[in-house]
Amino acid sequence: MFRPSRAFSLLTCLFFFCFIFVSFLFSSEGNKIPVIKVKGNHYQVGYQIGTKMKKQLNGLLQQSKDYVAEKTDLKWEDIRAQAQLLLEYSRKHLPEYVEEIRGAADASGIDLVDLFSEMCEEIYAKNYLKGCSDLIASGDVSEDGSVIAAHNNDTSPSLEKYAVVVHYQVDGEPEILAVGYGGLAISIGYNSAGISLTGNELSMNDMKLGVPRLLLCRKILAARTIAEAIDASIFQPRASNYNMVLTDENGEIYSIEGSATDYEALYAEDGFLVHTNHYTSPRMRKYELDPYDITSSLVRYNRAYRLMKNNRGKISVEMMKKFLKDHVSRPKSLCRHGKYVKTTFSVIINLTEKAMYLARGNPCESEYYKYAF
Ligand SMILES: [Zn+2]
Fold it and tell me: How far is the CA of 37 from the centre of ligand 1 (A)?
């Protein structure tokens, strides 16, 4: 017998569950950056990354091929020839991390030289996008004594969808939780030995052949002490460098302003440190590729410094979220909104808690999620 009231209640339930399902799909949880876990020796973890990230690695490579075809006078073979040179330096000086890329190449079916070219920012440009801001607080200036490293990662908007967290458990290394694009190009993170790496792009006039700077990031993240992290930042066979911001759980904070052939180790003497995308050390200024193209970096640096200085003793993870959403001088603001360069992920690492808070895209439009080992 047809029972309209029962049919009605079934329909109501159906609509209710559909509503919940659709709400879930479109909720900000859907915007959470995913985590992949990898474990074993270097080749094995690379193979696992290549298996899990095959689609994304192919997508990134295709983006690069399209960029070369549409925006440069180069042929893809020119890119491969340069990548091959940097690969030979890396094989000689950092073979363990080449093994990771070889594993990923084997698993994804992508040619090793093609895949390695994705690690070589040096072959695409000299004057980089001038992206990323760092604000680091030791326990001397935080509200509860925590050591907190905050970072906005600014890149081409096309990279945002490739952001991923890699949880490494590699034989002989501390556990690492790192963020980057496509699973191989990681540049930010922390490890179980209490070391974090954040950092900023610098454009230098002394680039040379050598190991690509992205491989230095991978080496830094395996450091067990702040001294080891500094050694990895100034690894001499490098082709270029970032400004590597290194922090340990004791609140030792260094900004290693590196070029390809030189560096200055800046220490957080007042218990906090900020950095953006220009050389601040008077001795390193001679390496600045274009001193007339650093206004975004200057205004973000000074804004970040003032926010930190005026809030000494009160800095917390919640306060760092507000700093990373700051819009003074928008679009060239800490929360970056440019057409060609924008914040594509935002991260706060609490080294005391050994946890990371991560948001996809601009933090003013996104939500932070907690990650830990
Ligand atoms: Zn914003």
Answer: 30
Ligand 1 midpoint to CA 75 (Å): 37
The count of C-alpha atoms lying within 13 angstroms of the C-alpha of 199, restricted to the half-sphere facing its C-beta, is 33
Give the Å distance between the CA of 330 and the centre of ligand 1.
8
CA max distance for the chain: 89
Ligand 1 centroid distance, CA of 186 (Å): 23
Q: Please tell me the distance from the alpha carbon of residue 89 to that of residue 300, in angstroms, as a whole number.
A: 35
What HEC string does 110-169 produce? CCHHHHHHCCCHHHCCCCCCCCCEEEEECCCCECCCCCEEEEEEEECHHHHHHEEEEEEE
Residue 162 has pLDDT above 70, yes or no: yes
244-to-65, 69, 117, 199 alpha-carbon distances in Å? 29, 32, 22, 5
pLDDT of residue 13: 54
| CA 109 to centroid of ligand 1, rounded, Å | 38
Per-residue tokens: 147: 């050591």
In the structure encoding, which two tokens stand for residue 50, read together? 């290549």
CATH 3.60.60.10 fits 133-372, yes or no: yes
Q: 185 phi and psi, to 5 degrees? A: -85, 75
Cβ atoms of 199 and 243 within 8 Å: the answer is yes
* Structural tokens at position 27: 């909720």
Q: Phi and psi at residue 169, in whole multiples of 5°?
A: -125, 90
Q: What is the pLDDT of residue 128?
A: 78
Residue 324 Cα, ligand 1 centroid: separation in angstroms?
A: 8
- Predicted confidence (pLDDT) at residue 4 exceeds the cutoff of 80: no
* Distance between CA atoms of residues 104 and 45, nearest Å: 8
Helix axes 95-108, 76-93, angle to 10 degrees: 130
Name the residue ranges covered by the structural domains of the chain.
35-123, 133-372
Give Cβ neighbours of residue 9 (< 8 Å, ≥ 6 apart).
none
Contact call for residues 358 and 165 (beta carbons, < 8 A):
yes
Rg (CA), the chain: 22
Q: How far is the CA of 366 from the centre of ligand 1 (A)?
A: 9
- For residue 21, what pLDDT band results from cuts at 50, 70 and 90? low
Span from the CA of 22 to the centroid of ligand 1 (angstroms): 27
